[in-house]
Amino acid sequence: MTEKIAKATHEGVIHIADAALSCAVLDDGRRVLSQSSMMRALGRARQAKGRGYYDADVNMPAFLTAKNLKPFISKELEVTSSQVKYHQVKGGAIAYGYPAEILPKVCDVFLDADEAGALSANQKHIAAKAKMLMRGLAHIGIIALVDEATGYQEVRDRYALQAILDAYLRKELAAWAKRFPDEFYQQMFRLKGWQWKGMKVNRPQIVGHWTNDLVYDRLAPGILEELQDRNPKDGKGQRAAKHHQWLTEDVGHPALAQHLHAVIGFMRASSGWDAFYRLMQRAFPKKGHTIEMPLGD
Length: 297
What we know:
Layout: E1 6-16, E2 19-26, E3 31-34, H1 35-41, E4 54-55, E5 60-61, H2 75-80, E6 84-87, E7 94-99, H3 102-115, H4 124-137, H5 142-150, H6 153-168, H7 182-192, H8 205-219, H9 223-230, H10 252-269, H11 273-283
Helix pairs in contact: 3-4, 7-10, 8-10, 10-11
């Protein structure tokens, strides 16, 4: 039976402290660090030797098989530290790696062993390297680092964005219900210096522009664009439904109500449109826009 070998779809290099770790994202979604670079980062070797870095008999990387390390190796690490064989992006050459998420766990093994006084003299330098790596990894997820280095975050973000849209937007149009408090429009007219004639009077088209800007464009990433696709204008510039009719009851509508409550609060506290809009830019910046630095009003 032919062995099925995963293929790398994205490759890159992570720089942590003084270490450079080659990494890849495989076609099945796994993130891996190359054996050679991980060994160098731990001060263990200069070049990868394929299976020589892995002890299949104990299902562990060879550098974790020392008897004095066993008490510090968790069951989870034993399960997740299997060697990964894959085809590289360029040329398809065979490469060997380890799951990226084991790096901090491996570092913990050496740091815990060192703290317990269990390391031999020739293992001390590994603990020193592990300490440097852990400091470099502080507050940063290894998976996020791999995704950024390989460019995979662009693919990941598209999947994440679709999940957000699915949560916020319903598949079918809901019946109309009033979602925008009258005060939202009253306050907009006050701040703009426009004459308020009540809700029964048709509002100018620019009101729709500012509603999109203040609400839908800041509610969640990609929501406004998706709403405009699902609820397009006809030949007369009219939409078949209100945007909020596309929002889901469990996520979309509660998020809309909470956002409107905050927006109206900022409106009440502002004496003019410019001051109010600066507050919005700081508190609810639109995705992909530069956040305005706080200046005196």
